[in-house]
Amino acid sequence: MNFPFGILSISGRWFLDFLAYLGELGALTGELVESIKLGAVRGRLMLQQIVTIGYGSQAVVIVTGAFTGAVFTAQSYFKFKDFGIESSVGGIVSVSLFRELGPVLAGLMVTGRVGASMAAEIGTMKVSEQIDALRVMGAHPVDYLVLPRFLAMLISMPLLISECIAFGLAASFIVGTGIFNIPYAWYWKHVVDHTALEDVSFSMIKGFVFGILIVLISCHQGLIANNGAVGVGLGTTRAVVYSSLSLLVCNFFLTFLLNYFFPLGSAL
Amino acid sequence: MATLSYEEPFIRITGLKKSFGEQKTLQGVDLDIYHGETLVLIGPSGEGKSVLLKHIIGLLNPDDGKVELEGTDLSHMKERELLKMRRRMGYLFQNAALFDSLTVAQNVAFPLLEAGLRNRAEIYKRVQEALELVELGEHKDKMPVNLSGGMRKRVGIARAIIGKPDCVLYDEPTAGLDPIVTDVIDLMIQRLQKRFQVTSIVITHDMGSVFKIADRVAMLKNGVIYFIGTPDEMKQSPDPEIQNFIAGRSGMCA
After folding, report:
1. Complex-level ipTM
2. φ, ψ (nearest 5 deg) of residue B16
3. Alpha-carbon torsion angle A31, A33, A35, A36, nearest 10
4. Contact check, Cβ <8 Å, A137/B100
5. CA separation (Å) from B149 to A129, A265, B61, B155, B177?
6. Which of B:142-181 have CB within 8 Å of A?
7. Which of A109, A186, B44, B252 falls between 20 and 30 A from B14, CA-CA?
8. Testing the interface with A: which of B99, B106, B164 to mutate, by most A Cβ within 10 A?
């Protein structure tokens, strides 16, 4: 094929594949909405998933939050010291944790830990005909597998993000006041002055959106898995890659959109 | 069903076609299955017997043709409508397809819970009965990964029949089982038919089972029903293809 047409046809095919993929995700969302409308909630399964997704992810999220808060405090301090405003480190760390670092890092850690296991578990069920077995016995796979994970994620994600932020702030407080000797009162005043309810809303809304993305993308990869062990491996990889990338891209747009409703600086 | 005469088919398959990519698996299958009969489906491997069975329960959608259950066309039904229809049927998968995350007893109880049964004592009793029917009463607390292939298959059978379905579809129920258990399974299929008038469709390669349980035999070959008739008619058929299949002769020389 001639030069421009070759590239056009390849990029055209990518675009069409991408549209088809979005269509499949849309169809899964439709099924999920129908499942919610029918009230097909299975309490026990949802609780099991809350344990797996929420309870089980705490350690990962806490360590991530704490060390991010600690290093961010250190780096900010080194720079702020040049301007003599080192006591305001608490403010910048807090706003960053609430608006970006908390939701994004917790989201990425949950993707790696939970998204991968969702895709692998559902994918294995798919290739070993267990999904067909569900259908044969009158259980809709979306009701049985996706809805409990979705609801568990909606409940767990805000709590995990809160934990991530709380431990980030605590670590920041310890590093700032313990190592760099910023006075407690000054440090804390800056945190409180610069953090508003809007920032909390920011983190929670992002958390919900990321949680929905992770569940939909990971469950979808599981449900379409074929080709045995190779297919499950591929689906798991894709679940993590697609979830992480879409999370980061969505985060960019969300930041602009949410900043319109909850502008930064409104706390001052 | 008392409202239907024996002549009205329970399941009617007309002009069923299905291809997977280039491979044309089913090329126009016509088949009627009547209430209370045991139809055995035989034929060479890879000719689409399992695919046909999956169409009957609506796991696959046909490219052309239709499957009717008591006059209701299943082939274009939505999944949620199909779920209700499927509760009238039991299905044994070739590899049993047990849920790894549940114990044997939980697997067997699954159809009852899905049907909305909540009485624990009743569920326990029926699970125990179903497991004893397939001689697995003492293995109910094991996980499926700790069972042998034959045991998994028998759990699959218990799960397929526990909901007292009108119709049970068995995909190779006795493959890989020892002769005694094979006989137990064959007798169980017969007993279900005699006692509860359960309609059974059985895929098997075991010609002994065919003659023991079948009311009618259908042979699927080259994507169509090549032969259908009673076991006696099959025995007396002059067709060399059928006779070779019964006797297990490949026509090759050593």
Report:
1. 0.89
2. -70, 125
3. 170
4. no
5. 15, 66, 29, 10, 8
6. 159, 163
7. B44
8. B99
What are the residues of chain A with a beta carbon less than 8 Å away from any beta carbon of chain B?
34, 124-125, 128-130, 132-133, 135-140
Q: What is the pLDDT of residues B83-102, one digit of tens each?
A: 888 888 999 998 899 999 99
The superfamily in CATH containing domain B11-88+165-247 is P-loop containing nucleotide triphosphate hydrolases (3.40.50.300)
Boundaries of every domain in chain B: 11-88+165-247, 98-164
Q: How many CB atoms lie under 10 A from the CB of residue B75?
A: 18
The closest CB to that of A138, out of B87, B99, B100, belongs to B87
Q: Say what the pTM is.
A: 0.89
Structural domain boundaries of chain A? 55-261
Decide if B80 touches A, using CB distance below 8 A: yes
pLDDT band at B2; cut points 50, 70, 90: very low
Chain A residue with Cα closest to B57: A136
Residue of A57, A101, A90, A267 whose CA lies nearest to A170: A90
In the numeric block, which tokens belong to residue A254?
């969300």
| B125-157 confidence digits (pLDDT tens) | 999 999 988 888 899 899 999 998 888 988 999
Q: What's the confidence (pLDDT) of residue B49? A: 92
Within 8 A of A137 by CB-CB distance, chain B residues are 86-87, 110-111, 114, 159, 163
pLDDT in tens, A133-189: 999 998 999 999 999 999 999 999 999 999 999 999 999 999 999 999 999 999 999
**Nearest CB to B95 within list A34, A124, A128:** A128
Structure tokens at A211: 């949680």
CB proximity B4 to A under 8 Å: no
| Amino acid (one-letter) located at A250 | C
